[in-house]
Amino acid sequence: MDYQFSFPYIWGATPDLLDGLWITLIVSLLSIIFSVIIGVVCASLRVFHVPVLSSVAAGYVHFIRSTPLLVQIFFIFYGLASLGFGLSGFWSGVLALSLWGGAYNTENIRGGLSAVDKGLKEAAYSLGLRPIHYLRLVALPIGLRVCIPALLNTAVSVLKNSSYLQAIGVAELTFVAMDRVAMDFRTLEMFLAIGLIYLVIVLLLSTAVRRLETFLKAPFNTA
Amino acid sequence: MVNSMSIDQLAGSAISIKGLSKWYGDFKVLEAIDLNIDNGEKVVICGPSGSGKSTLIRCVNGLEEHQEGQIEVEGKVLEKDIKSISKVRAEVGMVFQHFNLFPHLSILDNCTLAPLTLRNVSRQEAEETAMHFLEKVKIPDQAHKFPSQLSGGQQQRVAIARSLCMKPKIMLFDEPTSALDPEMIKEVLDTMVELAEEGMTMICVTHEMGFAREVADRVIFMDSGKVVEMNTPENFFSNPEHPRTKLFLSQILDH
């Protein structure tokens, strides 16, 4: 029990941590955006029972949810490379996290779309709007609002799970901490530091999304 | 009246239904319906719940698929593919029991959504048309509010205006006043009467018998998926032929 906790050590590691934080933010941001896009597309295929593609989407969701994320990351980074489709660690990471988040968002958004009042579909159709118009102009704007809390949940998970990418050498926050620990054995300082950094970005993300939700819900609330 | 009748006859059929049958599983909801509705004609359909009256008008714009028979709207046979159905639907307005306004859009945007998407019009044109019809249903001052901020009667009048913005040739009303508080029924019926007076072809599923008397050219009584009786309002109310019609009328009029 003679471990001496050192704040100056954390201070000294700040430039490295900021580099790692930057990569974490970029990877997460890209993955969150792609995962929402994947979710919108796959949920729409499911809700409209598009032949063949609906089953493909269902299989994809099932596969992602039933296998560990780390296995998926290794499969994409090492597996695809051995097939000749090698991607850099960064883009392997973005792809893996996007596919992972996309599967969860498919279910989130499917829930949101199913919550849209069936009467609105009939109203849209009776005006002559086609299914694609209904989806774009009515179902998604309403359904996405409904599932914002679930989307936030998945976005937070994507951000936190970006730490798995240290396993394929992406120099994100956790990788930086591991790297410093391997050199200086300052485990407590580094893991506390990155823990706090994750906590703060998740808090900021949650607050931003909650603001967005309040803003988007404004017209509904007056009922 | 005589004058408009002759114009109607010249103009021909707005809707022609031949041998229409529909099943839900084993249950036959519509049984060999034959019905012709002329341009400008107003038809009221009534009957007990489950008699198939809503299903019938929902078949006219393809919201329900039918298994047998043929429906022609404005001379076009209703096909099963979504493109041709959508074209027919754009000519046929529909008003629902529960209004079904788009809750995330302002009243004005509710009215301009379909024209902006389907017709080749500018936003300004679409908004002018929308304001014209919102004035017609007497709520232009609510244009920038959201549906949840309006009363039921106002919402239903917006729903009528929204349909009219597509300049339909036919309007279908599916129990438009059934979900309204009694004091809001009149404002919606007044709007519908006005529309009828302008010569719109209308099919209304309703139990508002006062409206039927005032506006309808024909009243249809349905029971168990069949047209039991079809007559002018005078004859329908004063001299119903079928015992089932008599029973129905005695139940809804005597209280």
Automatic annotation (TrEMBL), chain A:
GO terms for molecular function: transmembrane transporter activity. The keyword rRNA-binding does not apply. One of its GO terms (biological process) is amino acid transport. It is a multi-pass membrane protein. One of its GO terms (cellular component) is ATP-binding cassette (ABC) transporter complex. It is found in: Cell inner membrane; Cell membrane. Keywords: Amino-acid transport, Cell membrane, Membrane, Transmembrane, Transmembrane helix, Transport. The chain crosses the membrane at residues 20-48, 69-91, 188-209. InterPro entries: AA_ABC_transptr_permease_3TM (IPR010065), ArtM/GltK/GlnP/TcyL/YhdX-like (IPR043429), MetI-like (IPR000515), MetI-like_sf (IPR035906). Residues 21-209 form the ABC transmembrane type-1 domain. Its main location: membrane. The keyword Transmembrane applies. Part of the binding-protein-dependent transport system for glutamine; probably responsible for the translocation of the substrate across the membrane. PANTHER family: GLUTAMINE TRANSPORT SYSTEM PERMEASE PROTEIN GLNP, MEMBRANE COMPONENT OF AMINO ACID ABC TRANSPORTER. Belongs to the binding-protein-dependent transport system permease family. HisMQ subfamily. This is Amino acid ABC transporter membrane protein 1, PAAT family. The lineage of its organism: Bacteria, Pseudomonadati, Pseudomonadota, Gammaproteobacteria, Oceanospirillales.
From TrEMBL, chain B:
One of its GO terms (cellular component) is plasma membrane. The keyword Lipid metabolism does not apply. Residues 15-249 form the ABC transporter domain. Its main location: membrane. PROSITE patterns: ABC_TRANSPORTER_1, ABC_TRANSPORTER_2. Keywords: Amino-acid transport, ATP-binding, Nucleotide-binding, Transport. It is found in: Cell inner membrane. The keyword Amino-acid biosynthesis does not apply. It is a peripheral membrane protein. Gene3D superfamilies: P-loop containing nucleotide triphosphate hydrolases. GO terms for molecular function: ABC-type amino acid transporter activity; ATP binding; ATP hydrolysis activity. Signal peptide: none annotated. Pfam families: ABC_tran. Belongs to the ABC transporter superfamily. This is General L-amino acid transport system ATP-binding protein. It comes from Marinobacterium lutimaris. The lineage of its organism: Bacteria, Pseudomonadati, Pseudomonadota, Gammaproteobacteria, Oceanospirillales.
